[in-house]
Every structure is written in structure tokens, then in C-alpha cells.
Amino acid sequence: MNKYMLVGFGVLVGLLAAGLLWITVSPPRGEPVTLLPTPTPELITIHVAGAVAAPGIYILPQDSRMVAAIEAAGGFLPTADSDQLNLASRLFDGQQVIVPAIGGENHTIGGRININSATLEELDSLPGIGPTTAQNILDYRRQFGAFRSIEELLEVTGIGQTTYDTIRDLVTVGP
Asked: Would you state the CATH architecture of domain 106-175?
């Protein structure tokens, strides 16, 4: 009986060795895995101006926030009115970020009030815009970031078509 067990054990070991050999020398099955390079993020170009240490043109990753633009421009100057900006808002390509100064100058461009940098008082000076609606414009700007067009004013609480038609030639979103 011992002899039969040895023969059986030898056959089992032989079969295992043959199976292992067959697995290691057989060609791979399936499709090969192709490794791709890491994608590079798209870039945007922005212009940072106003009360920052180094105003200028900066190139940032596409999903950058306002805080990244301020950091790229060397941070706020001591005279900056940082409460006028929503530091968490997303930036878009070609955007101009104007950091207002505390008690700064009038934010007009070509005689039009820049709704992306104007103060409460400047917005309140527009016909049909009182202090509450002016505050709504500032709140909208803080929540959603810079206005991309003056038509976006229609999304601000308190500005209807009539008010918009009255002020559209008096405002701008910047150069």
C-alpha cells in the first residue's frame, strides 16, 4: 500500500508541475493594457488689476478660483477692499479681476459703471437702483463671481426688464 501511495503522490506532483508549466508558457489572453500619459490640465489666461502687489496677466489651471488669482498677483495690498470679491468664485478664460481699494476711486470705464468692481454707492447712483438692489448686485457678484455680460443683471433680484433697459447703456462688465 505504501508503494501505491508513492506512485499516486508522484502522479499528483507530476500533474501539478505539468499544469504550472503549461500556465507559465502559454501566451497571454485578452487585450493588452495600454498606459496613457497623465492628461495636462487646460489653462486660462486672466488679468489681475487693482489693489494687489503685482498686477498683470497670469496663466492658471482651468478650474482655478479667485483666491488663486489673488495669490498669483502677490496677494492683497493693505488698501485692498477684499470683502468686495468672492474668493471662492471660479475664474474663466479672458477674465479681468479688479481688486478695489478701500474708499477707492470711481469704478467707471468710458463713463460707464463697471458692475464687476463698483461699490454699493456707485451702484446706488444708477437710475432705478436703490440701496437694496445695489446690495443684491454685490451679493450676486460675491455668490457667482464676476458678471460675464450686462444681461446677467436680469438674474439679480430686483432688476426686471424695465430697470435693465434703463441702465444697460450706463454699465459695463469691464474692458
From this structure: Orthogonal Bundle (1.10)
pTM: 0.44
Please check whether residue 136 is in contact with residue 152, taking contact to mean a CB–CB distance below 8 angstroms.
Answer: no
- Segment 89-132, tens digit of pLDDT: 888 888 888 888 776 555 666 567 889 888 887 888 888 898 89
Residue-range domain boundaries for the chain: 40-103, 106-175
**How many residues are given for the chain?**
175
Q: What is the pLDDT of residues 59-85, one digit of tens each?
A: 999 999 999 999 999 998 777 888 888
The C-alpha cell at 91 is: 475664474
Distance CA 175, CA 169 (A): 15
- The CA distance from 104 to 43, in Å, is 32
